[in-house]
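Why does residue order matter? Because the sequence determines the fold. Keep that principle in mind as you read this record.
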Amino acid sequence: MTVAPAYQLLADRLRVEIMSGRLLPGARLPTEPQLCEQSGLSRSTVREALRLLSSQHLIVTTRGVNGGSFVAEPDAHTLGQFLTDGVGLLLASGSVKGDDFLEVRRMLEVPAAGLAAARREPSHLRELDAAMFDPDTAGLDERIAAHAAFHLAVASASGNTLLCLMVRPLYTVSDRKAAAHNAPLPMWRVIDQDHRALLAAIRAQDVELAMELARGHIDNVRPSEVPPEHTRRPVPGVAALKQRVVP
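Structure:
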């Protein structure tokens, strides 16, 4: 059995202290000499352990008279970027397949749409409006950016910070070449139609319809399986909204 390096064992011990809440955000860690004395490790090994924790955004280290290593304050953007990088590596390595991606989208986006419909504020509606695009005039980069902005705005409207954090990697990891291949113009028209229908349901605070539309939207944009429009599985859209949403 492989034994972990001493610096990693020390980092793991400190990580447990942080994640358990025994060391709260902003708390000062023991000094390097103190950690050396407590662990029996050399100063270089202790510094390597601290560098590892810093690279994982768990601590921050400052210099000067009042410097030292401190437990990092929660930062949703930094944590989201860390998670995004990990998801990107998994996708690049082939460890995560397209169907895995879509299954996670269904798990997160369908309830997110329902929460957004129930909790949306005027500011959220403005964000969703701003994410609309014209598929016939927008370039590929603009379409990809607008698509991401729309779904991140839905997550934001849910009012659930953790949900926003978990959804972000799904839209900040993008393969422009794959998008150009798997999503021709007819598909972008479908995406635009679905977004507008979902926005109308959220605006009307129709929770059930918003979830139904979110589920159908994910089925509509299944990568590399883009049926012709006349054979595409019917999904409630604008027609359903006209019947169920009062202007």
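Residues 76-244 form a domain with the Four Helix Bundle (Hemerythrin (Met), subunit A) fold (CATH 1.20.120.530).
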